[in-house]
Amino acid sequence: MSEYKPSNLGSTPCGTSIFHWGQRTYIMGVVNVSPDSFSGDGTADAEEAIANAKRLPSEGAAIIAVG
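and the corresponding structure tokens:
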């Protein structure tokens, strides 16, 4: 079995972060801001959505998607 060697797929700056694709795995957290979200965890409350987004990095998310 061969050793895995990550490839350099380029980098993307975003705010104060730089994502180096192919170097590591990035976790994406999702904040659903629609109360009819298919996953059932959506909210229309802005304060709750912001609190959810602020919590995600402590749970490992490097990227936050708002949908």
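(Above: one complete record from the training split.) The longest helix spans residues 46-55.
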